[in-house]
Design goal:
GDE_N_bis; Beta-galactosidase, Chain A, domain 5; Glycosyltransferase; aminotransferase; transferase; transaminase activity; 8-stranded antiparallel beta sheet; alpha+beta; 16 helices; about 650 residues
Length: about 650
């Protein structure tokens, strides 16, 4: 069991007892900011041993030395921890349980390995780090860890304590790990307190503000959550379904904690939802766009931050190494060491075929939802550039489709739609589609983007000629899509067209996104909606990414049989748009059943097992939680069921 502490673009994963052991892989722990681990060891011992855990919660934990009924522990250890921007703060209180004084030896084993998150993931990759040097120095109240690589990368982590440690010594002959030691004398039934502060300073940043005690940090965070999650309109006032309202409230609380800093076109500071924890607490184009779109009717300020942040990161030149092209919307923005040195392409990576049309969809949706055209006016140049990218480089021009090619050879993504894992875009026999791929749901996004941007051009930018051009392109795309993607034998759209324009015939949940975008005819919409509710697709908890029974189906695969809440949210919005209200309600009920089994927090993804195989949803082993678009999914369900 682990504990997650989040705040200000920083997070920590600890054991239930508050320790950090420096783990790698799916169970990574540590203190993280800007894609780097700034604390890899944080082990508390008293009198030479780690005290057993009595109880643990998000707020803290209680520990005590081993004892018996006749000789109970002489003291109890209360640990409270909190994380805020660039900092971890901890308060350790020792409480004497005896009617006589007691001497307690406390030690804290600390280290900072400064590992990049891409090193920690369980994908068996290694990265050379020439000239990298880690050092540690004593300070007046603790220690300071430094990490230098070349002349352009310098990070540090400082650990301070009140009272200052009595002794500081190396934990071993090698490495930088240190042991901080204190000797406390507890009065009879008295207490002793230790305040600990960790400040993380990634390369290129300034030292964060000292956070104060955990109680103060948590008080500020709780006030921020109340202000955001409790603002009007409140979900509880908009539905008579209390479980849905509860999932919405949890989602809003999670979105508050996932907010990270970003910057707009004029350098203005913004706060927007990072994609998720542990691997994705960064700006992701597709994730941030869909998250803010789901939340738009209730918290439009998210879209008002996401749109200018993505406009500021929009492509301006041709850079094949990171797939940048003029007008293209960024896929993700990373700040870690490996991105800085070009060892991963994700520093500013444009490997997303769908973020650009979704940017246009959200821009018009924000104007429509708020009635305020100012953001659409301000971002007109970026919106026009996005349109031109679709026609020029995306492949839409001359009667084409938006397409992408695998970037695997350069260390990037094989697939560049939302199902971006290797093998996700496959035929019914399991073979991966190859060549320049045109994925079905992306063409739906493009159709919606053309229709919406034509409306912006006509009503906001006062450019009737551009509006006419985009409306004609949308009508042409809709007609061609029906001809090229519809599979008459299956009465279902193809997942994609491969590089030879063959229909990629796996039956996939992506078809449900077409209900949302409006590219299908009404008769086709009903066929797709009904098909997605059949047992091979609908598990009882949600719609699977691939229908069961096909060769590539795997209930524990990331994109070939699992169930994604945000994928289902788009589908439910589409079902509601098409008037298929009964089907929409059925899927929504399944998702809320799943949320109830996860303390009302929907994870990134759950396994594809049906409720006939197991009565409760089976967790996916590597799911991020909280994750932004899963957190916003209940808000999308609320919108769909209210329409």
């Amino acid at each position: 069991m682990s504990r997650l502490l989040v705040g200000g673009g920083t997070f920590a994963v600890t054991t239930a007892g508050g320790d950090i052991r420096g783990l790698n892989g799916a169970s990574t722990d540590g203190l993280f900011i800007r894609d780097g681990r700034h604390l890899s060891r944080w082990l508390l011992t008293v009198d030479g041993t780690a005290p057993p855990l009595l109880t643990s919660s998000a707020d803290g934990c209680v520990l005590a030395p081993a004892g018996t009924r006749d000789r109970p522990p002489a003291y109890t250890v209360f640990r409270r921890q909190a994380v805020t921007e660039g900092a971890l703060t901890e308060h350790v209180r020792l409480v004497g349980n005896l009617g006589e004084p007691a001497v307690v030896e406390v030690e804290l084993h600390v280290d900072a390995d400064f590992a990049d998150q891409f090193e920690l993931r369980a994908d068996h990759r290694t990265y050379d780090k020439p000239d990298a040097v880690r050092t540690v120095d004593p300070t007046a109240d603790g220690v300071a860890f430094h990490y230098r690589r070349g002349g352009s990368w310098l990070s540090r982590t400082t650990v301070g304590a009140v009272p200052a440690p009595d002794r500081v010594r190396p934990a071993g002959a090698d490495g930088t790990a240190q042991v901080l030691s204190w000797t406390f004398t507890l009065p009879a039934h008295g207490t002793a307190d230790l305040a600990l502060t960790v400040l993380a300073v990634p390369s290129g940043t300034t030292e964060p503000v000292t956070p104060g005690p955990p109680s103060a940090v948590r008080g500020r965070q709780e006030a921020e959550t109340r202000a955001f999650a409790g603002a009007r309109p409140r979900p509880r006032d908009l539905t008579s379904w209390p479980e849905l309202a509860r999932a919405c409230e949890q989602g809003l609380a999670d979105l508050t904690r996932l907010l990270i800093p970003a910057w707009g076109p004029e350098g203005e500071e913004l706060r927007l939802p990072g994609a998720g924890i542990p691997w994705f607490l960064a700006l992701f184009g597709r994730d941030s766009l869909l998250t803010s779109l789901f939340a738009l009717p209730y918290r439009p300020e998210l879209a008002a931050a996401v749109l200018p942040a993505l406009a500021a990161a929009q492509g301006t030149r041709y850079d094949e190494a990171r797939l940048e092209q003029p007008g293209k919307i960024v896929h993700e923005v990373r700040h870690g060491e490996l991105a800085h040195f070009g060892q991963v392409p994700y520093g500013r990576y444009y490997g997303s075929v769908d973020a650009t049309p979704l940017f246009l969809v959200l821009l018009d949706a924000h104007r429509t939802a708020t009635g305020d055209p100012r953001l659409a006016e301000r971002l007109e140049p970026q919106a026009r550039a996005a349109v031109e990218w679709m026609f020029r480089d995306g492949g839409l021009g001359a009667g084409g489709y938006l397409r992408y090619t695998s970037d695997e050879a350069r260390g990037g993504l094989v697939n560049q739609n939302w199902k971006d894992s290797a093998g996700a875009i496959c035929f019914s026999d399991g073979a991966q589609a190859e060549g320049d791929l045109a994925v079905g749901e992306v063409q739906g996004y493009v159709y919606d983007a053309l229709v919406r941007t034509a409306r912006l051009a006509r009503e906001v930018w006062r450019d009737a000629r551009e509006a006419d051009r985009l409306e004609e392109a949308a009508a042409d795309l809709r007609a061609r899509f029906r001809r090229d993607f519809w599979m008459p034998g299956a009465a279902f759209p193809a997942l994609a067209l491969d590089g030879r324009n063959r229909q990629v015939d796996a039956l996939a949940s992506d078809a449900g996104h077409l209900l949302w975008s409006g590219i299908l005819d009404p008769g086709e919409e009903r066929m797709v909606g009904d098909r997605l509710l059949q047992k091979d697709f609908f598990s009882g908890f949600g719609i699977r990414t691939l229908a069961a029974g096909q060769a590539p189906y795997h209930p524990l695969s990331y994109h070939r049989g699992s169930i994604w809440p945000h994928d289902n949210a788009v589908i439910v919005l589409g079902l509601a748009r098409c008037g298929l209200r009964e089907q929409a309600a059925t899927v929504a009920k399944g998702l809320i059943r799943a949320a109830a089994h996860h303390d009302w927090r929907l994870p990134e993804v759950i396994a594809g097992y049906g409720d006939d195989e197991h009565p409760d949803p089976v967790p996916y082993p590597h799911a991020s939680s909280p994750q932004a678009w899963a957190a916003a999914t209940p808000l999308a369900l609320l919108t769909a069921l209210r329409e």
